[in-house]
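Support request from a user on the community tier.

User writes: "When I paste my C-alpha cells into the form, the page sometimes reloads and wipes my input. The last time it worked, I copied everything first. Here is what I submitted, just in case something in the input itself triggers the reload:"
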C-alpha cells in the first residue's frame, strides 16, 4: 500500500487526512512535526510527503529525500517561498502547492479587518474599556462607498477582495503585472505607485518573490495618501516592517492590519502564552495601538482547511503515480 506522511498536522486536520487515506487506499501517517533536517529520516519507508512549512526548508533535506526515493513535497498553502525550487529540481523533487483553497475566505477576512480600522474599532474599544462613552471626532469614520480602494495583485484572492469592495460602492484601482480582463468594474494603473496614490485603503494580494520583496518600504510609503489604511493578508516579506511602523507613527498611515509577518515562522501557529517573545519588532507590532496583528489566519475556515488537506494529499499521490501533478511548481 502507498504510504504518505502528513507532516504539520493540526488536531482538526487529522480525521480529514485519515478519511482521505481510507477513500484512496493510501496509508496516511499524521505527525505534528514539520519536515526538516531533524525529521526527514522518518520518511525512509514512505512514498510521499505533504507538509505545511512556514520557515525555509534546509538544503540538506532535498538530497536525503532523493536518496529515500521520494519524488515530491506537497506544500499545503498557496505560498511556496520556503522552498528552493531549483535545488529541489536538481534532486528530482517535485514541489507543489494548493493555489486556490478558498479565496473568498481570505478576501472576507481582508475586508473585515480593514473595516475595523475604517470604523475605528480599536480606538472605540479602548475608550469603552476606560468608561469613556462620548462621541468624538477622533472616532468618526466615512462610508466605504466614498473611498478609493487599491488592490495590489488581482489573482483569485485579490479579485474576490475587489468584488466585495465593489459591493460597498467603493472606487477601485488596481495593479497587477497580468491584468484580469473580467474585472471590468475597476481601473488598472501602470504601477503600484499610481494605484495607491489616491487610495484610502490599500489591500495587498501578491506572492513573495524577488520583485515583491519589501515592495512596501519607506520609498513606497512616500507615495501613499496621508491617512490611508494598509492591509496585508498576502506574504510578510512584501512589507519592510520597520518602515511600516514608522509610516503609522508619523501619520502617513492611519493604521495597518497585518495577517502575515516576514519573521513569523518561529511564532505564528505556536502557543507563546507565558513565554518571552525575543522578536522586538513583532512585539512592537502587537503592542501598537493602530496596528492589528493576526497569526496568518485569514484562510482559516472549514472549507479552506478541507481543501488544503485534500489538495496536499491529492498532489502527493498524483506525483507518486504519474510523476507530476496539476499544481507543480518546478
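"...and here is what came back when it finally went through:"
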Amino acid at each position: 500500500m502507498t504510504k504518505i506522511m502528513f507532516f504539520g498536522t493540526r488536531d482538526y486536520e487529522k480525521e480529514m487526512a485519515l478519511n482521505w487515506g481510507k477513500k484512496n487506499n493510501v496509508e496516511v501517517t499524521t505527525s505534528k512535526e514539520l519536515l526538516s533536517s531533524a525529521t526527514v529520516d522518518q520518511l525512509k519507508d514512505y512514498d510521499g510527503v505533504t507538509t505545511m512549512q512556514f520557515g525555509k526548508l534546509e538544503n540538506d533535506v532535498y538530497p536525503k529525500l532523493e536518496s529515500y526515493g521520494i519524488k515530491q513535497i506537497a506544500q499545503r498553502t498557496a505560498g511556496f517561498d520556503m522552498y528552493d525550487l531549483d535545488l529541489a529540481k536538481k534532486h528530482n523533487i517535485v514541489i507543489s502547492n494548493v493555489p486556490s483553497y478558498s479565496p473568498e475566505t481570505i478576501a472576507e477576512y481582508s475586508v473585515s479587518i480593514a473595516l475595523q480600522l475604517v470604523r475605528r474599532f480599536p480606538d472605540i474599544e479602548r475608550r469603552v474599556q476606560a468608561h469613556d462613552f462620548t462621541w468624538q471626532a477622533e472616532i468618526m469614520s466615512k462610508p466605504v462607498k466614498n473611498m478609493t480602494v487599491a488592490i495590489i495583485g488581482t489573482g483569485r484572492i485579490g479579485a474576490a477582495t475587489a468584488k466585495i469592495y465593489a459591493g460597498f460602492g467603493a472606487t477601485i484601482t488596481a495593479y497587477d503585472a497580468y491584468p484580469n480582463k473580467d474585472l471590468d468594474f475597476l481601473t488598472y494603473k501602470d504601477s503600484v505607485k499610481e494605484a495607491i496614490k489616491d487610495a484610502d485603503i490599500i489591500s495587498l494580494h501578491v506572492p513573495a518573490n524577488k520583485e515583491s520583496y519589501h515592495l512596501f518600504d519607506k520609498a513606497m510609503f512616500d507615495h501613499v495618501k496621508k491617512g490611508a489604511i494598509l492591509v496585508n493578508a498576502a506574504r510578510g516579506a512584501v512589507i519592510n516592517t520597520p518602515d511600516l511602523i514608522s509610516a503609522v507613527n508619523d501619520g502617513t498611515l492611519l493604521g495597518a492590519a497585518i495577517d502575515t509577518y516576514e519573521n513569523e515562522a518561529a511564532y505564528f501557529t505556536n502557543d507563546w502564552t507565558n513565554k518571552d517573545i525575543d522578536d522586538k519588532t513583532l512585539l512592537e507590532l502587537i503592542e501598537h495601538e493602530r496596528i492589528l496583528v493576526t497569526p496568518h489566519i485569514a484562510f482559516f475556515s472549514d472549507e479552506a482547511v478541507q481543501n488544503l488537506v485534500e489538495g496536499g494529499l491529492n498532489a502527493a499521490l498524483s506525483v507518486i503515480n504519474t510523476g507530476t501533478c496539476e499544481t507543480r511548481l518546478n
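Agent notes: The reload is a front-end session timeout and is unrelated to the input. The chain has two domains: 3-101+302-322, 103-293. Residues 302-322 form the longest helix (21 residues). Escalated to web team.
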